[in-house]
Amino acid sequence: MASSRRARHAGPPDGGWGWMIVAGCFLVTICTRAVTRCISIFFVEFQAYFGQDYARTAWIHSIVDCATMLCAPLGSLISNHVSCQVGIMLGGLLASTGLILSSFATSLEHLYLSLGVLTGLGFALCYSPAIAMVGKYFNKRKALAYGIAMSGSGIGTFILAPVVQLLIEQFSWRGALLILGGFVLNLCVCGALMRPISLKEDCKTAPEVLEQNYVPETEKQDLKRMSIRSPLIKLWPHECLCYCSWKEYDFLLMPGFMVLAVSILFMAYGCSPLFVYLVPYALSVGVSHHQAAFLMSILGVIDIIGNITFGWLTDRRCLKKHRYFCYLFAVGMDGLSCLFLPVLQSFPLLVPFSFTFGYFDGAYVTLIPVVTADAVGTPLLSSALGVVYFLHAIPYLVSPPVAGWLVDTTGSYTASFLLCGFSMIFSSALLCFARLAKKIKRTHLPSLTGNTALKQHIWTNGAIAYSITAELDQRDVEFLAVDTNSFSKR
User: Fold this and answer.
1) Span 298-321, pLDDT tens digits
2) Distance between alpha carbon 394 and the CA centroid of its chain, in Å?
3) Taking the model in full, what pTM does it have?
4) Are residues 207 and 118 in contact, defined by beta-carbon separation less than 8 angstroms?
5) I want to staple 194 with a disulfide (CB 3.0 to 4.6 A). Which of 84, 146, 173, 407 is the partner?
6) CB contact set of 237 (below 8 Å; sequence gap of 6+)
7) Which residue from 135, 260, 261, 252 is spatially nearest to 201, judged by alpha carbons?
8) Burial state string for 336-369 with b = 16 or more CB within 10 A and e = fewer than 16
9) Gap between the terminal Cα atoms of the chain
């Protein structure tokens, strides 16, 4: 009943309640990503208490990150088919339960399950749906809105890093985890702010389904008034249901999205170990505990500046068309910073690293949803973000233990940081080469699009259509679809 009374907007309102959605997403990123980053502060405490090496202890942070990203499609599924509010509130309860149970841990295996799996699952149900909601409320100022929303990660790290260190000193690591468990319950409040919005572009009538005659003639008129994501979808025939479910994920075969997905794998591999090992590395070169925690705070506050300034800059007319290159530039600069980290062995030298890495980390994190939306479109953003964050899962799971194994084997952090840097640089270079290849292919488009009869024949031939139209831009594909529909009505 609530969904039937929901106001339908012609397009994203770019304001109004959208700013409350931004505020809710801001708090979600504090309670999820900032808390995850602060787990690295517990690293030394866990290692000393349980008497384990770097690699085994690093699995805790890896499992949290992996579970958060691996279960991101589940968060998108609940958001699309049940409610964003329900998903985030449920996630808050699970994450809080995991942190509270972790305070009673008696082994690393216990922490793997409670702090890793359960808390990570809770974060997954909150993170991608909250980010996708911002994209539904904003279009013209999308990058700025994401910049403000994603800055919660940096602000949360800046505030929580010294607070967590103080809590560990005052109440031990068990007490600190118990308090964080109560803090994370604020995710339930964030979920209450996520008021659903219905856009006309989300309420498609599925003309392809009608043309395929999956639905009897008597039901077609009712079907035309139904959204693809309507609760009445369960009344459709099985073939229609399968078709619409596939349409929700057909972006997986888009060449642009596939290249972005591969680059994200390498980017995620490179960025994760830095948040795990920055504090232990600082301690290993003689930096005090408070200074090491302060490095994380610096990284967090500069992350905020990167979020907001890059979001604002890429919304300007001069840079809006070049957000893709701004994203790959930020990823490349983060990789370059990692290459210099092994030679920075004092607090005054590590401070500039925190500034540089934090700024560009905030920059590209802000642009991930924007670049994804540009690749697949706003209606599919929630599902696409679920897949994008799902792709973070394996690198997040593997990279910290691999980096820890390299530290245990070589006795230094050099190999680990170099591997991180080269991985992120490769991610940026891959996107750059893909865009250059796309521009080269576009030089052949005049000859392809000049023959209207050939174009219409290719579009109507289902066996060939995708391979040819993959090289066309979105506007050309829409032109072909309209042209074909008008031809079929003659």
Assistant:
1) 887 888 788 778 777 777 777 777
2) 14
3) 0.62
4) no
5) 84
6) 214, 215
7) 135
8) bbbeebbebeebeebbebbbbbbbbbbbbbbbbb
9) 41
**Of 382 and 446, more confident:** 382
Q: What is the pLDDT of residues 179-222, one digit of tens each?
A: 999 999 999 988 888 887 766 555 544 444 444 444 444 444 55
Q: Which residues of 124-156 are buried (b: 16+ CB within 10 A; e: fewer)?
A: bbbbbbbbbbbbbbbeebbbbbbbbbbbbbbbb
Cα separation, 240 vs 225, in Å, equals 15
> Residue 474's pLDDT band (boundaries 50, 70, 90)?
very low
Block residue for tokens 């690749």: 375
| Single-letter amino acid code for the residue at 246 | W
Dihedral sign (CA 116, 117, 119, 125):
positive
Distance between CA atoms of 190 and 262, rounded to whole angstroms? 32
Q: How far apart are CA 332 and CA 350, in angstroms?
A: 19
Contact 88, 193 (CB under 8 A): no
| DSSP alpha helix (H) spans, 82-230 | 84-102, 108-111, 119-137, 142-184, 187-193, 207-211, 217-224
The conformation of residue 457, written as its DSSP 8-state character, comes to: H
User: What's residue 245's pLDDT?
Assistant: 53
Q: d(Cα 366, Cα 229) in Å, to the nearest integer? A: 28
Q: Which two tokens stand for residue 357?
A: 């890495």
Taking each continuous run of H as one helix and of E as one strand, the counts in the chain are 25, 2
Residue-level pLDDT at 10: 56
The token duo for 150 is 């994603």
Q: Count CB neighbours of 261 within 10 A.
A: 18
What 349-358 contacts at long range (C-beta under 8 Å, 24+ apart), as own/partner pairs, is 350/282, 350/287, 350/295, 351/295, 351/298, 354/278, 354/295, 354/296, 354/298, 354/299, 354/302, 355/298, 355/302, 357/274, 357/299, 358/154, 358/298, 358/299, 358/300, 358/301, 358/302, 358/303, 358/306
Share of the chain above pLDDT 90, in %: 17
Cα-flanking dihedrals φ and ψ of residue 198, to 5°? -110, 120
Q: Give me the DSSP letters along 354-402.
A: HHHHHHHHHHHHHHHHHHHHHHH-GGGHHHHHHHHHHHTHHHHHHHHHH
In angstroms, rounded to a whole number, what is the distance separating the alpha carbons of residues 347 and 69? 32
Torsion sign (Cα): 245, 247, 253, 254: negative
Strand partners, 198: 8
**Whose structure tokens read 């929901």?**
6
Please list the alpha-helical segments (H only) found in 248-322. 255-284, 289-313, 317-320
Residue type, 83: S
Length of the chain: 490
Asked if residue 150 lies in contact with residue 365, where contact means CB atoms within 8 angstroms, the answer is yes
Output the CA torsion 401→403→405→411 (10° steps). Answer: -150
